[in-house]
UniProtKB/TrEMBL annotation:
Belongs to the mannose-6-phosphate isomerase type 2 family. The keyword GTP-binding applies. It comes from the Bacteria. It comes from Enterovirga rhinocerotis. NCBIfam families: GMP_PMI. This is mannose-1-phosphate guanylyltransferase.
Length: 473
């Protein structure tokens, strides 16, 4: 009988090729990419939370920790959340996962999977994991090889070798191939190659041994980062100094291309890593004209296009074919599907020019809820704020601005210096420059308010936190 599998979900990417919907402040794995579907992170968690799977582990950046926690709560799923102090690519994260699993039991079967993939058949995925686990039990580091549907140049490929007896249909990996050009992709498919989907199943002791042979510095850094980890609320923060010592490289380069234990199981469930807007068009449902549409959109005389509209702004597209249009409250992208891969270059250009929109959404998520800028000008800024039930902002003060809060829904508990008061719907409170203040939602429904800031400077760095339950400085 195959033992239960420990799923480890990697969700540290920023998804710049899906800008402007995906940005550093809310990467693609946490947003709804297809109309009517939850985020790919939430779908991934739900996919590995059934029979045969242990309580999942999520490896995330610190900036995304509260989004991870909130979406887990929405799914009704508990997980261990490990926070990477910085991005060191996949090898360091896999090493941390293997070391943590080895402490649970050396022969623990670990499944490494990404948080940003779309899979069309959850039952087939679970069955594939069980089959691949049979190979992992026998000491192989298994990967799932996706049956290709086209000669894609954006994926790596795997060529399978000899069969592994009594290992659930597994084969040895003959060779990994980097992303090919179009002609190379066609040749690989003719040879029976599979897409490298980036899934790995292994026994914890096998992976740690292979890391010790092929990437000892990464293994050492991972062990020390775990040994020095500290608990912060419901999160486990890896030691930053130790983690920074891990060389920045992928698990493919560090181990998989060097080990003699690599195995592959061919699978054929519908799969898409949603790496670009054209890939999302491939994965999304399309209408009779071949258009994939989301949000408030009117498309006339338009074919074979992706129109990703905002829920707040109407997007109209007329007489265009094979294009991508993405509308958000503060940015619009228009490109051909063929050039959609170049979006990452746009983001780099915007960063170089100092445009905040490269990384920040107008709506910024916080552990207590979110705020969204409505308007900004000389000496003022207007925001819409939502605070979750029982949410509590930090006790803070500002040196350059005063604030007016108008409650439009719910009840606010407001602290201004030594005074605490309840402010109800259609009531307002004034916070003078320099006062110590806090906002709390004591109720059972979300609290919404309009905040008007007035002063010589309204930037987010004009905040001095006196007390904060979330441990922010």
């Amino acid at each position: 009988m195959t033992p239960s599998i420990l799923p480890v979900i990697m969700c540290g990417g920023s998804g710049t090729r899906l800008w402007p919907a995906s940005r550093e402040s809310m990467p693609k794995q946490f947003i709804s990419l297809i109309e009517g579907q939850p985020s790919t992170f939430r779908m991934t968690v739900e996919r590995v939370s059934g029979p045969g799977f242990l309580r999942p582990v999520v490896i995330s950046s610190s900036d995304s920790r509260f989004v991870v926690a909130e979406q887990l709560a929405q799914a009704g799923i508990e997980a261990d959340i490990l926070l990477e102090p910085e991005r060191r690519d996949s090898a360091a994260a896999v090493a941390v996962a293997a070391c943590q699993a080895a402490a649970r039991g050396p022969e623990t079967i670990v499944l490494i999977l990404a948080a940003d993939h779309l899979i069309g058949d959850d039952a087939a995925f679970a069955a594939a994991c069980r089959s691949a686990a049979a190979g992992a039990e026998r000491g192989l580091i298994m990967t799932l090889g996706i049956a290709p549907t086209r000669p894609a140049t954006g994926y790596g490929y795997i060529l399978a070798g000899d069969e592994v007896p009594e290992a659930g249909g597994a084969r040895r990996v003959a060779r990994f191939v980097e992303k090919p050009d179009a002609a190379g992709a066609e040749r690989l498919i003719a040879e029976g190659a599979l897409w490298n989907g980036g899934y790995f199943l292994f026994r914890a002791d096998v992976m740690t041994k292979e890391l010790s042979l092929h990437a000892p510095k990464i293994l050492s850094a991972a062990k020390e980062a775990l040994d020095g980890a500290k608990r912060d609320l419901d999160f486990i923060r890896l030691d930053p100094e130790a983690f920074a010592e891990a060389p920045k490289t992928s698990i493919d380069y560090a181990v998989m291309e060097k080990t003699d234990r690599a195995g592959v199981l061919a699978v054929s469930f519908p799969w898409n890593d949603v790496g670009t807007w054209s890939a999302l068009w491939d994965a999304a449902p399309r209408d009779a004209d071949g258009n994939a549409i989301r949000g408030r959109v009117a498309a006339i005389g338009t074919r074979d296009s992706l129109v990703y509209g905002s829920d707040e702004t109407l997007t109209a597209v007329v007489g265009l074919d094979g294009i991508v249009v993405v509308t958000t409250p503060d940015a619009v992208l228009v490109t051909s599907k063929e050039k959609a891969d170049a979006v990452k270059d746009v983001v780099a250009s915007l960063r170089a020019a100092g445009h905040a929109e490269a990384d920040e959404h107008r709506r910024m998520y916080r552990p207590w809820g979110w705020y969204q800028r409505i308007d900004i000008g000389t000496r003022f800024q207007v925001k819409r704020i939502l605070v979750h039930p029982q949410g509590r902002l930090s006790l803070q003060k500002h040196f350059h601005r005063a604030e007016h809060w108008v409650v439009v829904r719910g009840t606010a508990e407001v602290t201004v210096d030594d005074r605490v008061q309840l402010v109800h719907e259609n009531e307002a409170v004034y916070l003078p420059i320099g006062c110590t203040h806090r906002l709390v939602n004591p109720g059972r429904i979300p609290l919404e308010l309009i905040e008007i800031q007035v002063g010589s400077y309204t930037g987010e760095d004009d905040i001095v936190r006196v007390e904060d339950i979330y441990g922010r400085g």
